[in-house]
Amino acid sequence: MTQTPASESTDSSQIDEIRAGYAFEGGVLKLGAAVVDGHAHADAPVQIPLSVLNRHGLVAGATGTGKTKTLQLMAEQLADQGVPVFLADMKGDLSGLATPGEGGDKITARAADVGMPWAATAYPTEFYTLGGKGTGIAIRATITGFGPTLLSKVLGLNDTQESSLGLIFHYADKNGLALLDLKDLRAVITHLTSDEGKADLKELGGLSSATAGVILRNLITFEDQGAGDFFGEPEFETGDLLRTAADGRGIISCLELPQVQDRPQLFSTFLMWLLADLFHDLPEEGDVDKPKLVFFFDEAHLLFDDASKAFLDAIEQTVRLIRSKGIGVFFVTQSPKDVPSGVLAQLGNRVQHALRAFTPDDAKALKQAIATYP
Asked: Is this prediction's pTM over 0.90?
């Protein structure tokens, strides 16, 4: 009688557990297959149900571990299943989605090993830029559309200053003054603080010249950081991101950002406006079979580096609430530590690539990341 080696029995048990743990009904995103001792088991796929993608997620791992490929794989499968995708392409790595890729023996063999046959495919892709910085359709918002509440958070205003900014917007609306860009807003504030505008300023009540001066200075700093390019006409209609192509595939909207890597304030301002606008316009969906739209924000640490508490609170609140609209948000970065804990707590899905530790701080961050897994 032949006995099965203990190691083979253990491997079989592990594969059975993985197979059972990733068995789902309905649409899924296939990420690969279980690998034990260097051998891939195509009959034990690793996958995520489409129905949970609105619980958001994180794709993390050290440089060179394949995060961009994972992002691309997820975007392609979502598009194939009729889900529109929005990609914030910080490094210009994702534009190739619009054209068929080039295969090879290694790609074909690896795809077969994990049970995911590969074929060169072009996906319906549209390209966008922030304020016309680059090649693509310019995404802009008017100051009026952005609104005083969101602008106050971006500028880091206190409660008194936020209330005063609201009064300025009210004055502009009452007098039929279009606030299209930052220059328009500065012009209104300058008028209200001038000798000619004293009467109007008095009518508003509660708006001091000192507060108006603070808002003006913050606006100038904000514009110096590149945010002025984002404001203006025509205002982008965020509902256009939810479209599908004639063949039923979801359209991939690729926002090209290589030219604004040194302007994180512009990127974060755009993110706040985009999510807030979608949250305002879309109806409540509850539980869905598949998301209405999935966002991927690459190099997510740029969003949160040196961000104000007001900004972080706004992002955390929006991410927490927008899932009820059928929207999924995925952040892509090197370490889970790059994402503030309040936001990280909202990310129900995680794809973890290899982490590396070269310093004591890296080792500590690695241990913290491991501790968050069951």
From this structure: no
